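ugh finaly. both done.
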Amino acid sequence: MKVIGSTGSKEKVDFIVDDFGFNAAWNYKEEGTAEAIQRLAPKGLDVYYDNVGGEQLELALKFMKDFGTVVVSGAVSVYIYPEEEKYGVRSLMNLFLKRLTTKEEVLIGIDRAAEVLDRVWTGKEFGKMVLKVHEEQEM
């Protein structure tokens, strides 16, 4: 696996490459995120870990490979925004409509509720578990 990262200074770039073992890094104050990702991961990203949010996350999402994984642990770039200007992922619906694949299983009938709970709690389910109380119930 190739690991790349971004930091805000040349010293930090050197640190994460030399000390943390990243394969490559860029200084986001000197090179745009889109350009850096195109240069360092021209085939796209398999995994993206984000604690910045905002524009950085929006750009990275455009470069995700099919079936890629995104881990979001914060949104430090929007913490200082006034409450009415804070936002999550603006392009999230586009991702769902165009590129994200979800896995779900739908079981029908209230009598299957115990089965659904058992599968979720024991980790037997992979993806989303849905219980429709009756066949005509809308999702």
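ok and the 2nd:
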Amino acid sequence: MQLSQPRADDGYSEIRATVDHMFAERPAGIGIGDLERIGWFDLHEEVPEIAVRALFEGQGAALASAATLDAYALADLRARDLAPVSGEPFAVLSATSRPGRYRGLVAADLAPAAYVFETPEGAVRIVSAADLAPEPVDTVDAGLRLVDIGIGAAAGRVLDLPEGFLTRRVRIGLSWHLLGLCARLLEVGVDHVTARHQFGQPIGAFQAVQHLLADAAVAVASGQVIGDAAQAEGDGALGEVTSLAAAVAASRALATTGRSVQQVLGAIGYTWEHEFHRFLRRGMVLDRLLDVNEAMLGAAARRCGVPAVSSVGAGAAVPAQAH
């Protein structure tokens, strides 16, 4: 089932093939140095939007553990001559609902020397890991390493960046991560209904099954279109709205794809032996880390003065000005 992809001449297929090969060889513990070696940062300088999308979608499809958010932030920090000390690895943290607490994904076997986070007021700060005490967070996905850290509002040093710089990249990166996961999960469903026969024909020949998978395909493709728009918008007030729209669309795609693929898989989808639960667990953790909803999108749109928010595809929202 063909989903939305950038134009062939944009180089997406070549970058994605490189990323897929890397994750196939080493699905855990990919760090910034590994991405340097495959030339991802050079590609980001040439075609940043394509490089980011290919990296995160490939990670989602492979269920890989890698420092992708860290690399995304680092690439844009380098473009502004604000990168941390050369060779110093760092991890990106997201704010939580608890004041002074932040959470972030850390690639397996990697030890960040610093953490970058954005305060509720919009200031981006970097603080040495030596000054912090990360606490592991138990999740339903044993393949992810999530940490929770208490950080004072004045900790570390402030980076001269636009308000929302880090939050926007976290939302876009995790959105592509979820969409890559959903696209692969949809392939799992399509493969199953093609191979599984009932009443003398593939179950994919039945209209009800086709409708379920079509709903999932529309949700994923809608999310991809909105994700492209969010990356193209850049930083600023409208960038906040479009990144929120991308996150909401990716969250909806996960819900729709998970529900539809579980339905067409039937009983086998409930077993430990089938891979469905691995995608569902990963998606649940990423979706919770995104922590967005349509009310947040509506509020951001009103602050930005966007006159209307219209629905695209399977209910995914995007500001009308960004179409």
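summary for the 2nd one i guess: The first strand starts at residue 28 and ends at 30.
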